[in-house]
Design a protein that fits this description.
- There is one protein chain.
- Helix content is 67%, strand content 0%.
- With 224 residues, the protein is mostly helical.
- The protein is globular, with a radius of gyration of 19 Å.
């Protein structure tokens, strides 16, 4: 059955590429800070899209369908015979929430950053120097958290691939799982209409944050 729609799968793999570029541009390359910032805005838009998609997207990827209760989470962790979920399992659901939270924090903190050469964030001059310095530390810590979460995620996926779900990796490529999908599916037109609404909303919010939020807050921002 088709579980992961094309937009969810694209979101997943574009996120992989985006995080890799952020690591590459921050740690290896010396002249990509402007593109690093642009990618940060893109990733923020992707997080907004996923939040929106988690409410109006296909049933299988809605937060209401896979975010676990405490009982569900503890039962899954303690059970020796793991039940295969149509959507994310409880631990996978926590990983999704953690990724969205950390990447959003990382992207928004970038608004307050300044590398003194290529880039000054749109909200760099809004707060005091000490607060801005603290946000810069949060930016570094959040990215370390993202890398750690990626490592845990990869290990968990490989473990589940060989222990419980041999199709877990291919499902994020094809979108299919050999399970009965109990959730109603969206008609093709509805799927694309809702997805592009979420995409348009995400672009609009990020554009407003970058181009108009400094003015609304009374910040004279000079950024690239």
């Amino acid at each position: 059955m088709k579980v992961w729609d094309i937009y969810t799968r694209l979101w997943h793999w574009l996120l992989v590429c985006g995080i890799f570029f952020q690591w590459l541009s921050a740690e290896i390359l010396d002249d990509q800070m402007q593109n690093h910032a642009l990618m940060g805005y893109t990733l923020l838009g992707m997080m907004i899209f996923r939040l929106c998609w988690g409410f109006i997207g296909p049933e299988a990827i809605r937060f209401s369908r896979f975010v676990p209760s405490w009982h569900t989470l503890t039962h899954y962790v303690s059970s020796s015979n793991k039940h295969i979920h149509v959507s994310h399992n409880p631990l996978g659901a926590l990983a999704v929430i953690a990724f969205i939270g950390l990447i959003t924090m990382q992207a928004i903190s970038g608004f307050f950053m300044d590398d003194e050469i290529f880039f000054t964030g749109p909200l760099y001059n809004w707060l005091s120097a000490s607060t801005t310095s603290l946000i810069a530390e949060v930016h570094d810590i959040a990215f370390t958290g993202i890398l750690l979460l990626i490592a845990i995620h990869i290990i968990a996926v490989i473990y589940h691939r060989f222990k419980y779900e041999p199709f877990i990796i291919t499902a994020m490529v094809s979108g299919n799982k050999p399970l009965a999908n109990p959730y109603p599916t969206l008609a093709t037109f509805q799927l694309h209409l809702r997805a592009w609404f979420c995409i348009g909303l995400s672009i609009l919010i990020v554009w407003l944050m970058v181009n108009h939020l400094p003015d609304w807050l009374g910040v004279e921002a000079a950024f690239y």
